[in-house]
Amino acid sequence: MNSLNRQVEESRQSMREEVLEGLRRPQKSLPSKYFYDERGSRLFEQITRLKEYYPTRTEKAIMQQHMPEIAEYIAGDSVLVELGSGSSKKTRLLLDHLTNIAAYVPVEISEKYLAEVVGTLKQDYPNLLIKPVCADYTKPFQVPPIQNPHTYYVLFYPGSTIGNFRPCQAQQFLETISRILNPGGGMIIGVDLKKDKKIMEVAYNDKKGITAAFNKNILRHINRELDANFDLDNYRHKAFFNEKEGRIEMHLVSEKEQEVAVASETFLIEEGESIHTENSYKYTLEEFEKLVHPWFSVQKVWTDKNDHFSVQYLQKK
Ligand code: AVJ
């Protein structure tokens, strides 16, 4: 078997294990990373343009409004490393204000997406050195080595993607990722903030049903990849703010008692039983500072006028 096929086979194998493990639990759950096949990524792009979904446009507005200042935290000669670079759209806001960085390192799991985006970036920024890394940034990965001892790494982690981790997982992640950084390095991170519950809940229950389609797409992805037989019509999208945990939870609620076969295992799902598909944690500025403080000090926080979202510069301790 060639190495690409082997990789595909390995990732299908680990998907199978993770999916089965989640479905065996008393509260059934599925890892939210499996929303993002090609269709899921397209649906997420549509979510970011919904009027109800405030995070993306608020983060973009904060970055645009404060851009010269944000860019000052990235010293000339830094290497900018973006975790989960996707379309690199937000990065362009940064790159337009940076003239002297040593390199841009987009880290992205989808090889196809990465190659495509790097191609257009090279056209638009002919003087920028781009060193793409195709990797799952939640697992250890290699960054291109730096020759110059005065060069710092600055991580870019927008979109409040950190909210998908439980706080203890987020801390493990911060610890791992901080090892990439030398003292003097840092991270520009987007963090969604706690606010009126209605605003948060509406953002995950849009009128057009795009978030519902996005949520159900995880079942479609599993059907295709693991030879499962979820009937998408038998599940209802549910999203709510769990006050005690400080997170939006997304679930798929079974509308009747049914069986599903996944990779040669069958599961009984009761009427009204749910499959937990995503957590999206929201933080106060104080809570977030506590979360990062073993590894980072919060040097600067930029917010919108309603304090709905924040962009922060964290300095490695
Ligand atoms: C990409 C994880 C930041 O949690 O708001 C959007 C994903 N889920 N609508 C989020 C998502 C439902 C999004 N993140």
Helix proportion of residues, in percent?
25-40%
Instruction: Examine the secondary-structure arrangement and name the CATH architecture of the largest domain.
Output: 3-Layer(aba) Sandwich
**Bound ligands:** N,N,N-trimethyl-histidine
Assembly state of the chains shown: single chain
Q: Using the coordinates above, name the CATH class of the largest domain.
A: Alpha Beta
> How many DSSP-defined strands?
12
CATH superfamily of the largest domain: Vaccinia Virus protein VP39
Main pleated-sheet profile: 7 strands, mixed
Coarse shape: globular
- As for the CATH topology of the largest domain, it is Rossmann fold
Cα Rg: 20 Å
Give average pLDDT, whole number: 94
Write down the secondary-structure element order: HHHHEHEHEEHEHHEEEEEHEE
Summarize the structure.
The chain is built from 10 helices and 12 strands.
Please tell me about this protein's structure.
- The chain is of the alpha/beta class.
- The protein has helices at residues 3-24, 38-48, 54-65, 67-72, 89-95, 111-124, 167-178, 197-203, 210-226, 285-292; strands spanning 79-83, 103-108, 133-134, 153-157, 186-192, 235-242, 247-254, 258-262, 265-269, 274-281, 296-303, 309-316.
- It has 2 domains: 14-51 and 198-281, no CATH class; 57-195 and 284-316, Vaccinia Virus protein VP39 (Rossmann fold).
- It is built from 10 helices and 12 strands.
- A 7-stranded mixed sheet has the order 3-2-1-4-5-12-11, sandwiched between helices.
- The longest helix is centred in the first third of the chain and has 22 residues, at 3-24.
- The relative contact order is 0.16.
- The model has no long low-confidence stretch (mean pLDDT 94).
- The protein binds N,N,N-trimethyl-histidine.
- Residues 47, 55, 159-161, 163-164, 204, 211, 278, 280 line the site of N,N,N-trimethyl-histidine (AVJ).
